[in-house]
Automatic annotation (TrEMBL):
GO terms for molecular function: beta-1,4-mannosylglycoprotein 4-beta-N-acetylglucosaminyltransferase activity. InterPro entries: Glyco_trans_17 (IPR006813). This is Uncharacterized protein. The lineage of its organism: Eukaryota, Sar, Stramenopiles, Ochrophyta, PX clade. GO terms for biological process: N-acetylglucosamine metabolic process. PANTHER family: BETA-1,4-MANNOSYL-GLYCOPROTEIN 4-BETA-N-ACETYLGLUCOSAMINYLTRANSFERASE, BETA-1,4-MANNOSYL-GLYCOPROTEIN BETA-1,4-N-ACETYLGLUCOSAMINYL-TRANSFERASE.
């Protein structure tokens, strides 16, 4: 069995993910929270309800888990998080705790449903799209399946804004793991995200900020990087300019290098999504 586990917060890429992987995945496990990681604002309802008609063709394989409320971490938990994740700012520790809780939320469900049976979990963000060919290999090759007692990263091409803009370095946080490796992680699905373990080259496509301009503003207001939720980064005109030119909306150093990509070389479902997304970015907000 192949279980595809991912967090969701209204990203348009969900529909592409379901369409792309429907024939090779046995169960999609989509986890949405009623609140955002930043804690800065309450969401207006659930996106899985708002887009219920879009999800309808895939419901026979789609399990939706809802986090009604994030628990409040104690000071010791936040201190340990900040110590182990050196890249986070102290003032963002609660937001990163919520993200970690969100990612791990499906672990108990998977253990309960699949027990000691043979399965492979794909542990991703919704915008990390595994290549169906890799998933098919994991499903059909016993040798590949056996290797996954050690989690293997899916080394993906990394795109920003849409499939026109490709980052020079690949992205490799998403991973695949079999039931033995899953048990060994003891419910901590974050454990392997940043580790340097081996992986599958050509593992898929990562789409960062594949959203409309208002969607990017919402993302920056919502997610764990609280340092990017200021007016400096939320200006729609600045964001719109970056979508068109491939510049860095986060204004980080060193400056990103994005290359124009030949969209026609991508699989047809990705080309179709790209065209629809660019239209949305040009005409929405």
């Amino acid at each position: 069995k192949i279980a595809d586990i991912f967090m969701y917060n209204g990203e348009p890429l969900l529909e592409l993910r379901l369409k792309l992987l429907y024939d090779v995945v046995d169960e999609f496990i989509c986890v949405e929270a009623r609140d955002v990681h930043s804690g800065a604002r309450q969401k207006q309802g659930l996106y899985v309800e708002q887009y219920a008609e879009v999800l309808k063709p895939y419901r026979d394989k789609l399990t939706i888990l809802i986090i009604e409320e994030f628990p409040t971490p104690d000071a010791g938990t936040l201190e340990a998080l900040h110590t182990s994740w050196t890249h986070i700012f102290p003032e963002s520790a609660q937001a990163w705790y919520r993200e970690s809780y969100h990612r791990n939320y499906a672990a108990d469900y998977v253990r309960s449903k699949y027990g000691n049976g043979a399965f492979v979990a794909l542990v991703c963000d919704v915008d990390e799209l595994p290549d169906p060919a890799i998933v098919r290999e994991v499903r059909d090759s016993f040798g590949t399946y056996e290797k996954l007692s050690t989690p293997h990263h899916l080394v993906m091409e990394h795109f920003f804004y849409n499939f026109q803009w490709r980052y020079v370095d690949p992205f490799s946080n998403a991973y695949a793991v079999n039931e033995q490796g899953f048990r060994d992680m003891e419910g901590d699905l974050n454990l392997m995200r940043m580790s340097p373990n081996s992986g599958f080259r050509g593992g898929g496509w990562h789409g960062s900020y594949f959203l409309s301009v208002p969607g990017i503003v919402r993302k920056l207001e919502s997610y764990a990087h609280r340092e990017y939720s200021t007016e400096q980064f939320l200006d729609p005109n600045t964001i719109r300019g970056c979508l068109r030119s491939g510049c860095n909306i986060l204004q980080q150093e060193p400056v990103w290098v994005l290359h124009e990509h030949n969209v026609s070389a991508l699989p047809p479902p990705l080309q179709e999504f790209h065209c629809n997304l660019v239209f949305l970015q040009e005409h929405c907000g």
